[in-house]
Specification:
Number of domains: 2
Number of helices: 7
CATH class of the largest domain: Alpha Beta
Structural class: alpha+beta
CATH superfamily of the largest domain: D-amino Acid Aminotransferase, subunit A, domain 2
Shape: globular
Number of strands: 14
Radius of gyration: 20 Å
Strand content: 25-35%
Distance between the termini: 23 Å
Length: 285
């Protein structure tokens, strides 16, 4: 399969690489408003994880009044050619939008389903350095296409020599990174935000990690994590469905006059290694 985007038509994927000058008004309007929902994951992945991605994609579409008329099992079968080799797969539900008025009526928007692929990212293996910024995504519990603010804030962090940006909400509680969930480690306990209380994406990888920790007897604390708590953490890491776990070493916030070097004692390193093993074994199963 090539990295060109494909549209699902009658259970077959057809090419959709159309020059912008020839794109339909509906596609251009959808891109203009960022009114789409999507999910992204690295392959191979277990079938139950794929089903979780498809379920969230359907739920997010329904929340935004976008039709999702594909049966999960049929869709999983149609996707099988894309799941056989290591790569990043993105599924995007693109509604047909003629004008802005189309968005404000009471009807479900018909939509296409687009799949696109790209190579897996190169990871140096070095721990991350994060900037810290107050920001909350619009509709934070939905994985939608309006991400200009998050991209710009990450770009600013990278221009300052850092890797990514960690967000906190107006209550100064930590929430998420630009495209990943955040976990803190303290005394063999995992700390992570509650998506529906704190305002962050309920990530698929995040939930699988929380479930694994509960089954393994590892405490998970979802009480709000204030900025000041950063200095008490033993370690931290980011998770998403493309790069399951990336350790964090340094967090810096100029506006809060905060610089935090995470110590990573042996027990935190051992716990992180156990999590890395869980993801490695799961992706190979």
């Amino acid at each position: 399969m090539t990295s060109d985007s494909l549209i699902l038509k009658d259970n077959a994927w057809v090419a959709s690489s159309t020059p912008t000058s020839q794109a339909s008004p509906e596609m251009l309007t959808t891109l203009l408003y960022g009114y789409s929902v999507y999910t992204t994951f690295a392959t191979p992945l277990p079938s139950r994880w794929l089903q979780a991605h498809l379920q969230r994609l359907a739920q997010n579409a329904q929340t935004l009044d976008i039709q999702f008329h594909w049966e999960h099992q049929d869709l999983a079968h149609s996707l099988s050619p894309f799941l056989k080799q290591p790569q990043v797969v993105r599924l995007t539900v693109l509604p047909f939008i003629n004008t802005f008025n189309t968005l404000v009526n009471n009807n479900k928007l018909p939509a296409d389903l687009m799949v696109s692929t790209r190579p897996l990212p190169f990871l140096s293996g070095e721990p991350l350095s994060l900037a810290l910024a107050q920001h909350q995504r619009i509709l934070p519990t939905i994985k939608h296409g309006s991400m200009v603010a998050e991209i710009q804030l990450r770009k600013q962090a990278q221009q300052a020599g850092l890797d990514d940006v960690l967000f906190h909400n107006a209550q100064r509680h930590l929430t998420e990174a630009s495209t990943a969930n955040f976990f803190g480690l303290r005394q063999s306990t995992l700390y992570t935000s509650d998506p529906y209380r704190d305002g962050c994406l309920p990530g698929i990888t995040r939930q699988h990690l929380v479930d694994w920790a509960a089954a393994s007897g590892i405490p998970v604390n979802t009480t709000p994590l204030p900025l000041d708590a950063l200095k008490t953490l033993d370690g931290a890491f980011l998770t998403n469905a493309v790069t399951p776990i990336r350790r964090v070493r340094h967090i810096k916030a100029q506006e809060a006059n905060l610089q935090c070097e995470l110590p990573w004692p042996n027990d935190a390193i051992d716990l992180c290694k156990s999590i890395e093993t869980f993801f490695r074994q799961t992706s190979a199963s």
